[in-house]
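Quick one: Copper amine oxidase-like N-terminal domain-containing protein from Paenibacillus silvae, structure tokens please.
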Amino acid sequence: MKKMMMFIAALCVVSVAGALYASAAKVSAAASTPEYSLTVNGRVVEAKRAEQMAYEQKGTVMVPLRAAAEALGYKVSWLAEEKAVKVDESIQSAMVKEGSTEAKFTGKLKIINLTQNVQLPAAVQSIKGVMYVPVTFFEPFFNEIIVKEGSVSISAQSATIH
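--- reply ---
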């Protein structure tokens, strides 16, 4: 009887320790992908849902593609046949696919060739219907990217010719 009580007590201790370990692992995983506030052209982009927050994954800041692109004034569309997202602005467009680390830019100017394939530091991801791209995706659109602890800023760069 005493051995049986010891066995039950040991089983309880192991069960509680296992639950605590699993809980700590979940907290650790959440802490390893910190969320970022997103500012575009000086305005904070409000996330409508928690899964629309910018976040960091393995050292790369990922931003919600549609929210960031539309805040910059770009047109975003889904290309069903290619299973890709197209981002369109006045001088160029870009196309990305989920799981790809490449963005295909197509220039619209005759004087300057802006057509290029750009390697992204992380794969494009779709989480609960929201497409995420590395924030550096927006650099070839001539945007300034600033990443600081807990915040990411994308600002359109402009030039004036006199």
